């Protein structure tokens, strides 16, 4: 008998309906809002999918082999997922992360055996990405580059999109995703649009002055190369306060312990629900709330 490995636990995550938040209005309008629980992946986020995909596809092309050093700039979830995937497949993992991101993320990366380089808060992810590229040029390792690697959206086209279509019985009308690396929204959009061109794809982004871990509006020169703007029908901006309040509401009213960017996507889904009827709206619960405890978003 061949038993499954931890790799086999990635994907096929549950899709659950919101039962209380917005319930009265949704019932009146005939809408359903569903959350895709990507925090159920073994390393705790939607990034488990592209992390393993990027490593396995690079191995298949002969670009890397176990024992090599991998380098990646990350705001957290991709780093955790890559640390897990590197541990599974036998790589040294060096992760570069701005110093102001949550302590839980850094501790989790180290638990998987990754080495962590912290960069100045003032430089943001742009500085971290530049440093990763410089290290690769100096021969210190291979950058997988989640921002430009086609194996990132590819795995969402191959897995996340089909799962959503099957789980909703093809009834999905709107897909909402927080936009960071943009791999999720790009890959899922390509699949869903092939199945039904009328499915509306909505990206959640932070409004001016808001800092929401996991989502952001990139300067043009740092816009992820994998991002295809034609795959996104609409961008909706959410404030930090709105996302954090929704984070607390999801835990208290729905029992969904989600991260702040996931809550931002939920807030956007609720805004959409107020404008449409007979819709099936899916948002990505991209990670779990336990990696945000030190941020103060949840009351002590």
From TrEMBL:
Pfam families: PALP (PF00291)
Catalytic reaction(s) noted: O-acetyl-L-serine + hydrogen sulfide = L-cysteine + acetate
Superkingdom assignment: Bacteria
Presence of keyword Transferase: yes
Names of the cofactor(s): pyridoxal 5'-phosphate
Modification type N6-(pyridoxal phosphate)lysine: residues: 47
PROSITE patterns the record matches: CYS_SYNTHASE
Enzyme class: transferase
EC number of this enzyme: 2.5.1.47
Single GO BP term: cysteine biosynthetic process from serine
Chain sites annotated for binding pyridoxal 5'-phosphate: 77, 180-184, 261
UniProt keyword list: Amino-acid biosynthesis, Cysteine biosynthesis, Pyridoxal phosphate, Transferase
GO MF term list: cysteine synthase activity
Membrane-spanning ranges: none
Annotated metabolic or biological route of this protein: Amino-acid biosynthesis; L-cysteine biosynthesis; L-cysteine from L-serine: step 2/2
Gene3D superfamilies linked: 3.40.50.1100
Every Tryptophan synthase beta chain-like PALP domain range: 6-287
Membership in a protein family: Belongs to the cysteine synthase/cystathionine beta-synthase family.
Protein name as catalogued: Cysteine synthase
Biological source species: Ramlibacter montanisoli
Lineage of source species: Bacteria, Pseudomonadati, Pseudomonadota, Betaproteobacteria, Burkholderiales
């Amino acid at each position: 008998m061949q038993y499954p490995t931890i790799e086999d636990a990635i994907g096929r995550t549950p899709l659950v309906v919101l039962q209380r938040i917005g319930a009265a209005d949704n019932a009146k309008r005939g809408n359903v809002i569903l959350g895709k629980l990507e925090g159920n992946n073994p390393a705790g986020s939607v990034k488990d999918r592209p992390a393993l995909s990027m490593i396995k596809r690079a191995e298949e092309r002969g670009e890397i082999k176990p024992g090599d050093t991998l380098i990646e700039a990350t705001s957290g979830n991709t780093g955790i997922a890559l640390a897990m995937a590197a541990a599974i497949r036998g790589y040294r993992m060096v992760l570069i992360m701005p110093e102001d991101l949550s302590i839980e993320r850094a501790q989790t990366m180290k638990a998987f055996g990754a080495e962590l380089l912290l960069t100045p808060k003032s430089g943001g992810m742009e500085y971290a990405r530049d440093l990763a590229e410089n290290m690769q040029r100096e021969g210190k390792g291979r950058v997988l580059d989640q921002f430009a690697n086609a194996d990132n959206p590819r795995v969402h086209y191959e897995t996340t999109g089909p799962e959503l279509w099957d789980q909703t019985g093809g009834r999905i009308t709107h897909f909402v995703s927080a936009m960071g690396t943009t791999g999720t929204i790009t890959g899922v959009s390509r699949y869903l649009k092939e199945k039904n061109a009328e499915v509306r794809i909505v990206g959640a982004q932070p409004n001016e002055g808001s800092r929401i871990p996991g989502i952001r509006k990139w300067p043009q020169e740092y816009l992820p190369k994998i991002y295809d703007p034609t795959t996104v029908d609409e961008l909706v901006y959410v404030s930090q306060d709105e996302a954090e309040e929704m984070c607390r509401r999801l835990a208290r009213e729905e029992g969904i312990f989600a991260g702040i960017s996931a809550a931002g996507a939920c807030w956007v889904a609720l805004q959409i629900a107020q404008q449409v009827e007979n819709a099936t709206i899916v948002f990505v619960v991209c990670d779990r709330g336990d990696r945000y405890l030190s941020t103060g978003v949840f009351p002590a």
